[in-house]
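User: I need a structural model of HTH araC/xylS-type domain-containing protein from Thalassospira profundimaris for a docking pre-check later this week. Nothing fancy, just the predicted structure tokens so I can convert them on my end. Input:
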Amino acid sequence: MTKGQIAVLPTSRPGTEAVAACSAHHFARHSHDVYGIGIIDQGGQKSASGRGIVEAGPGTVITVNPGEIHDGVPVAGEPRQWRILYFQPGILKDALNAIFEGGAPEHEFTSPIFHRPALTQYFNRIYGHLTSINMPDGDENFEYDELLILLARASLEQAHQPDENRLIAPGVFRAKQQIDDAPGETLQLDVLAQTSGLGKYQLIRNFSRATGYTPHAYLVQRRALLARQLILQKTPLAEAAIAAGFSDQSHMTRQFIRFYGYSPGKLARSIGSN
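Assistant: Understood. Predicted structure tokens for HTH araC/xylS-type domain-containing protein:
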């Protein structure tokens, strides 16, 4: 990114804002009416907030609460590069209610910075979702809902985390069966949670324990398996992609290479199919 640039990017979801910046700008004290969560990619920033003065370096997750007065200056006067997402309060509240089954406590980021790998991982993935221009995947709503809940969960301090012991339930197997029975069908997290009889966060956590995948990740790999089966039956690639639940052939190809290391076309050619 060019130095001195602060870009406000279009997002795919209402109530969200995305910013990508590389700047040595000194931000005066100000506040937002939304939650902000971001990451420093290069350089460093020093800031005063309602939770103290902190210095954030590369890889540090930065946060801001609605109404919190803060500023920001570059360390040693050098440009720092960062990305940040802003969420309307209701969006984060809904994600927390999914975790606490409707009884979420009032949320506040307890620290202006976090060094938490899971939080970094979920932020990067959801930032990619929100700022994607093409949005090619047919089930992006599913993965977005899942990532938002996991992002909110990773931002909680230990004192405010739910009792994990009570979140284990057998409904995950009903959800898994629904995916197994028809991986090519359109599916949303809300529907899968209803099938399981679990809250959305309960479903994500228990599904991961039982299968090693989140529900969305499991769905995608089942679709790749179905596509492979169809191709081995000499189904044309474009038809196989749609039947397996992918939005198009290029979407299938990306996932196929991700799982198998080679393209669907290579598999089709290996069996003498066009």
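Before docking, keep this in mind: Strands lie at 5-9, 16-23, 27-30, 35-42, 45-49, 52-56, 61-64, 70-74, 80-87, 113-114.
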